[in-house]
Amino acid sequence: MGGDQGPAVVAAGVSKFLSSDPAAQVLLHGQREILEPLFAGSDVAARVKIVHATGVVAMTDKPSNVMRSGKATSMWSAVDALRDRRADACVSCGNTGALMAVSMIRLRKAEGVNRPAIACLWPSRNPNGFNVMLDVGADIRADQDDLLAYAMMGASYARNGLGLKRPRVGLLNVGTEEHKGRAELKVASDMIASAADKGDFDYVGFVEGGDIPSARVDVIVTDGFTGNVALKTGEGTATLISGLLREAFLSSIASKVAALLTRGAWPVSSRGSTRGRSMAACSSGWAASWSRATARPTPPASARR
Prior knowledge:
- The protein is α/β, with parallel strands linked by helices.
- It has helices at residues 7-20, 32-35, 63-69, 74-83, 96-107, 144-161, 183-199, 224-249, 253-262, 276-294; strands spanning 26-30, 48-52, 90-92, 119-123, 130-134, 168-172, 202-207, 219-221, 301-304.
- The protein has a five-stranded mixed beta sheet with strand order 4-5-8-6-7, sandwiched between helices. Strands 2-1-9-3 form a four-stranded parallel beta sheet, with helices on both faces.
- The termini are close together.
C-alpha cells in the first residue's frame, strides 16, 4: 500500500508470481476496497486472500513513529502473519527502516544476532548470476562480532537460497593485504576464518569493491554504511550506463534498428521504485530458497505493499 508505485504494481507482481507457481498462495495485506478490484476476474484470484488493514506506512514515515502507532498498518499485519505462522515469508516493497523495526519487535532477533542485516543480491560473474552482500543499510555500525554474524547469516542464505554447498565468504576492505583496514576488520577477519569450518563455508579473506560482482566470492560482508554506499553507487552507475545506451540507440535510424534487434537481451533490476516484475522475482526467489531449505512444496507467502 505504501510503496513508491502504489498497490497496482504489487498486484501485477503477485499475479505474475502466482502464474509461475501453481502451488503458491498469497496473503495480501492492505485496504480491501482498493485491493479487491485489482484481482477482479483474474485467473489467480482464488489463491489471493486479502487481509484488511486500514493503515499505511508511508515511505517518509519514521520507524520510531511506526513502532509506536503502526499496529493498524498493512506492514504490521503482514509481519504478524509471519509471527503467527499463517505465512512462511513476508515480502514488502515499502519503508525498509520501518519494516526492520516492526520485524524486530514482532519477530525478535535470532539467538546470537546483535544487529540484523539487510542483504542484497548483486549481479555477478558467478554461474548463478548473483553474489550476496550484507549489510547494505540496516545499521551503519558493525563491530567484529556483528561482522562474524553477518558472515554466518550470509553463508546460510547462499547455501539455502542459491544452492551453494560451501559458499565463499569475503570481508570488504580497502585492500586485500592483511595489514590494511580498521582494527575491527582485522579482528573480524581472524574470527571469520576460525568459524569457517563450523559455518560450513570457505573464507577467502579481504575483498575489494571490484570483487563485489566477481566470481572470486559468493558472500560479501561489510557494515551497513559501506554496503549502502556501494549499493547506491552501483545503482547510479547502472542508471547512467542504461541512460547513455538509450541515448545512443535513439540517436539515428540505424541505431534504432539495432535497439530493436537487442530488445530483451538486457536484464532489468529495480529497488525502491518497484515494478511488477521485481515483485514477482522477489516472491519467486523466496519460494525457490524456501523449497531448497525445506524440500517441501511451496507454502503460502505473505505479501504487502
